[in-house]
Amino acid sequence: MIATFVTETHLTEEQDAALRPLLAAAFPDRAGHFALQSWWLARPQWRLWLSDGDRPIAHLGVERRRIGVGDQDVYVAGIGHVCTDPAMRGKGLGVALMDELREVLTERFGFLTCLPHVQGFYEAAGWVQVHAPVVMSNVYTGERMTSSIPAMVLGEGFPEGGPIDLRGLPW
After folding, report:
1. Could you give the residue ranges of the DSSP H alpha helices within the chain?
2. Each residue of 85-98: pLDDT tens digit?
Protein backbone atom coordinates (compact mmCIF):
# COMPACT_ATOMS: atom_id res chain seq x y z
CA MET A 1 0.00 0.00 0.00
CA ILE A 2 1.34 3.42 -0.98
CA ALA A 3 0.42 6.67 0.80
CA THR A 4 0.45 9.89 -1.22
CA PHE A 5 0.15 13.37 0.30
CA VAL A 6 0.07 16.24 -2.21
CA THR A 7 -0.96 19.88 -2.26
CA GLU A 8 -3.99 20.62 -4.41
CA THR A 9 -1.89 22.87 -6.65
CA HIS A 10 0.44 19.94 -7.40
CA LEU A 11 -2.32 17.39 -7.99
CA THR A 12 -1.75 16.21 -11.55
CA GLU A 13 -4.51 15.71 -14.10
CA GLU A 14 -3.78 11.98 -13.96
CA GLN A 15 -4.08 11.88 -10.16
CA ASP A 16 -7.32 13.87 -10.28
CA ALA A 17 -8.71 11.52 -12.93
CA ALA A 18 -7.74 8.51 -10.79
CA LEU A 19 -9.43 9.92 -7.67
CA ARG A 20 -12.77 10.71 -9.31
CA PRO A 21 -13.95 7.08 -9.77
CA LEU A 22 -13.11 6.31 -6.12
CA LEU A 23 -15.10 9.32 -4.90
CA ALA A 24 -18.00 8.51 -7.26
CA ALA A 25 -18.14 4.91 -5.99
CA ALA A 26 -17.90 5.96 -2.34
CA PHE A 27 -20.49 8.74 -2.68
CA PRO A 28 -22.96 7.36 -5.26
CA ASP A 29 -25.49 10.16 -4.66
CA ARG A 30 -22.82 12.57 -5.98
CA ALA A 31 -21.35 10.31 -8.67
CA GLY A 32 -22.32 12.71 -11.46
CA HIS A 33 -20.53 15.54 -9.70
CA PHE A 34 -17.39 13.48 -9.10
CA ALA A 35 -17.33 12.47 -12.75
CA LEU A 36 -16.44 16.13 -13.42
CA GLN A 37 -14.23 17.07 -10.45
CA SER A 38 -12.70 15.39 -7.42
CA TRP A 39 -13.99 17.69 -4.68
CA TRP A 40 -17.31 18.86 -3.27
CA LEU A 41 -18.19 22.14 -1.47
CA ALA A 42 -14.91 23.59 -0.11
CA ARG A 43 -11.94 22.58 -2.24
CA PRO A 44 -9.22 20.91 -0.16
CA GLN A 45 -5.71 22.35 0.06
CA TRP A 46 -4.10 18.93 0.36
CA ARG A 47 -5.01 15.38 -0.61
CA LEU A 48 -4.03 12.21 1.18
CA TRP A 49 -4.77 8.84 -0.33
CA LEU A 50 -3.76 5.23 -0.18
CA SER A 51 -3.32 3.22 -3.35
CA ASP A 52 -2.76 -0.42 -4.13
CA GLY A 53 -0.11 0.62 -6.63
CA ASP A 54 -2.42 1.14 -9.57
CA ARG A 55 -5.39 3.00 -8.18
CA PRO A 56 -6.50 5.02 -5.15
CA ILE A 57 -8.44 2.90 -2.62
CA ALA A 58 -8.89 5.36 0.27
CA HIS A 59 -8.86 9.17 0.30
CA LEU A 60 -9.35 12.33 2.32
CA GLY A 61 -8.98 16.06 1.76
CA VAL A 62 -7.51 18.59 4.18
CA GLU A 63 -8.17 22.32 4.41
CA ARG A 64 -6.46 24.55 6.97
CA ARG A 65 -8.93 27.11 8.27
CA ARG A 66 -9.39 29.55 11.11
CA ILE A 67 -12.77 28.83 12.67
CA GLY A 68 -14.62 30.46 15.53
CA VAL A 69 -15.30 28.54 18.73
CA GLY A 70 -17.40 30.80 20.92
CA ASP A 71 -15.33 33.98 21.15
CA GLN A 72 -12.02 32.27 20.24
CA ASP A 73 -10.27 31.81 16.90
CA VAL A 74 -8.92 28.29 16.39
CA TYR A 75 -6.89 26.93 13.47
CA VAL A 76 -7.96 23.47 12.41
CA ALA A 77 -7.25 20.97 9.70
CA GLY A 78 -10.72 20.52 8.25
CA ILE A 79 -11.08 16.97 7.00
CA GLY A 80 -13.50 16.00 4.25
CA HIS A 81 -14.03 13.70 1.29
CA VAL A 82 -13.12 10.74 3.53
CA CYS A 83 -13.78 7.48 1.75
CA THR A 84 -12.70 3.94 1.06
CA ASP A 85 -13.38 1.96 -2.09
CA PRO A 86 -16.67 0.16 -1.29
CA ALA A 87 -15.17 -3.15 -2.49
CA MET A 88 -12.27 -2.72 -0.03
CA ARG A 89 -14.19 -1.76 3.12
CA GLY A 90 -13.58 -3.71 6.30
CA LYS A 91 -9.90 -4.32 5.51
CA GLY A 92 -8.36 -1.66 7.76
CA LEU A 93 -7.86 0.98 5.08
CA GLY A 94 -9.74 3.64 7.04
CA VAL A 95 -7.53 3.04 10.08
CA ALA A 96 -4.42 3.15 7.88
CA LEU A 97 -5.65 6.42 6.34
CA MET A 98 -6.18 7.96 9.81
CA ASP A 99 -2.67 6.81 10.84
CA GLU A 100 -1.22 8.52 7.76
CA LEU A 101 -3.24 11.65 8.57
CA ARG A 102 -1.62 11.84 12.01
CA GLU A 103 1.79 11.72 10.32
CA VAL A 104 1.10 14.74 8.10
CA LEU A 105 -1.21 16.78 10.35
CA THR A 106 0.43 20.09 11.21
CA GLU A 107 -2.50 21.74 12.98
CA ARG A 108 -3.21 21.02 16.64
CA PHE A 109 -6.73 19.89 15.79
CA GLY A 110 -8.39 17.92 13.06
CA PHE A 111 -12.08 18.79 12.61
CA LEU A 112 -14.84 17.11 10.65
CA THR A 113 -18.54 16.50 10.55
CA CYS A 114 -19.84 13.04 9.77
CA LEU A 115 -23.02 11.08 9.39
CA PRO A 116 -24.06 9.20 12.54
CA HIS A 117 -23.50 5.77 10.97
CA VAL A 118 -19.72 6.41 10.66
CA GLN A 119 -19.26 8.21 13.98
CA GLY A 120 -18.15 4.98 15.68
CA PHE A 121 -15.34 4.57 13.14
CA TYR A 122 -13.99 8.03 13.94
CA GLU A 123 -14.31 7.47 17.69
CA ALA A 124 -12.33 4.22 17.37
CA ALA A 125 -9.67 6.21 15.47
CA GLY A 126 -9.31 8.70 18.35
CA TRP A 127 -11.75 11.43 17.29
CA VAL A 128 -14.07 12.90 19.96
CA GLN A 129 -17.53 14.33 19.41
CA VAL A 130 -17.93 18.03 20.10
CA HIS A 131 -21.29 18.95 21.59
CA ALA A 132 -21.73 22.48 20.27
CA PRO A 133 -23.77 23.71 17.33
CA VAL A 134 -21.78 24.00 14.10
CA VAL A 135 -22.67 26.97 11.91
CA MET A 136 -21.55 27.31 8.30
CA SER A 137 -21.97 29.93 5.61
CA ASN A 138 -22.95 29.40 2.03
CA VAL A 139 -20.48 31.72 0.33
CA TYR A 140 -22.69 31.85 -2.75
CA THR A 141 -25.91 32.99 -1.08
CA GLY A 142 -24.71 34.36 2.28
CA GLU A 143 -27.14 32.00 4.01
CA ARG A 144 -26.02 30.74 7.42
CA MET A 145 -26.95 27.18 8.29
CA THR A 146 -26.60 25.02 11.38
CA SER A 147 -25.35 21.49 10.83
CA SER A 148 -27.50 18.65 12.07
CA ILE A 149 -24.74 16.01 11.98
CA PRO A 150 -22.09 15.24 14.61
CA ALA A 151 -18.87 17.24 14.73
CA MET A 152 -15.68 15.41 15.65
CA VAL A 153 -12.26 16.67 16.78
CA LEU A 154 -8.87 14.98 16.73
CA GLY A 155 -6.43 16.44 19.25
CA GLU A 156 -6.33 17.36 22.92
CA GLY A 157 -7.63 20.59 24.43
CA PHE A 158 -10.17 21.76 21.87
CA PRO A 159 -11.95 24.80 23.39
CA GLU A 160 -15.32 24.18 24.98
CA GLY A 161 -18.34 26.28 24.17
CA GLY A 162 -19.88 27.39 21.01
CA PRO A 163 -21.22 27.90 18.60
CA ILE A 164 -18.54 26.61 16.26
CA ASP A 165 -18.47 28.81 13.17
CA LEU A 166 -16.79 27.19 10.17
CA ARG A 167 -16.69 30.59 8.45
CA GLY A 168 -17.48 29.07 5.09
CA LEU A 169 -18.69 25.86 3.56
CA PRO A 170 -17.90 22.51 5.18
CA TRP A 171 -15.00 20.66 3.68
Report:
1. 13-26, 31-34, 93-104, 116-124
2. 999 999 999 999 99
